[in-house]
Amino acid sequence: MVTVTIRAWSDYQTTGPATNVIDYEKPHIFKVQNFMGHWCDFCANFMWGLIAQGVKCQDCGFQAHKRCSEKVPNHCMPDMKYVKRIYGCDLTTVVKAQKSLIPIVVEKCVKEIELRGRVLCASTTFHFTAGTVSHADAEPDASDVAEGPGVLATTVYTDPLQHFQTVGQYELPCLVCVRLGEGDGENECEGMDQEGLYRLAGFHDDVEALRMAFDKDAENVDVSSSRFEDVNTVCSVLKLYFRLLPIPLITCEVYKRLMEIIKTEDLSQSEQVRLMKEPMASLPPAHFHTLKYMCAHLRSENLAIVFAPTLMRSDDANPMASLMAAKFEQKLMEVILVNHTKLLGK
């Protein structure tokens, strides 16, 4: 019998900016509108005229005179009936409309990717329960894996070996034991061990189908292996979500400040981390918590080259400038991944 302790989903800490999405500051997105007998939601006076009497927020439906709209505070509370899609929509708008700390598409994809790696590993030799991994002959059910709001911070492939207790005469994690022949030889682990994870693209038609499903009804999307067998499809959909954000996960303003720190040659990594804390803390709450969630999921430094252009970008449209910045972006992403607990909290 071998037991490996796993941190439960509920152990994910939400330190940092406000965790109540209602408190997130978000301006209204007003658009000129034609009304038929309507009153201003700000001043409560009638909106006179035949056409273009006022403006209406595209995210929450707030209606006001043009002059009144200039006085409205940034208290927009988006409603999903006005938010027509998830992909290509502002991150703060999505989390406020869904009333969740991070976008549902991110949480569902990350959980599914990690679940596949753990369950497929467990199917050969080990049985997963809410807090432990135990040797068992029976094939585990996916429901046995701990669930909850957060990420599985302890990952099989990236945690130090000392996190795993002795297996027989070997002090090795369960996956290594399976490779040594303790499995049945038929159900080898794939999941997080699959070659090209986050590097290989999923089948285009499946990626588009899953994207449209998230846009239509994010809460009820089925991303399980019974619906999408290739884990690369789920990975591609997750990366596509970040690529289509109108404001990148690491905002352009914060990106500039972080790049200045990374480009300073005479700074040690500890000094870089110290200087990076302030700009990282200035990220909008929705961006901060989503980045924290993703960093706890990724963990591997070699993924910096894959995710750097996905999670951050410059507002400079010059392609040569973007090309020159690529190596610094990769270095920045690596520093964030390695030191994410210092920068974003545990």
From TrEMBL:
GO MF term (any one): GTPase activator activity
InterPro entries, A to Z: C1-like_sf, DAG/PE-bd, PKC_DAG/PE, Rho-type_GAP, Rho_GTPase_activation_prot, RhoGAP_dom
Stored Pfam families: C1_1, RhoGAP
A GO BP entry: signal transduction
Domain of life: Eukaryota
Sequence ranges assigned to domain Phorbol-ester/DAG-type in this UniProt record: 27-76
The UniProt record lists the keyword Ligase: no
Entry keyword Zinc: yes
All copies of domain Rho-GAP, residue ranges: 159-344
PANTHER family xref list: CHIMERIN FAMILY MEMBER, RHO GTPASE ACTIVATING PROTEIN AT 5A, ISOFORM A
Name of this chain's protein: Beta-chimaerin
Organism field: Plakobranchus ocellatus
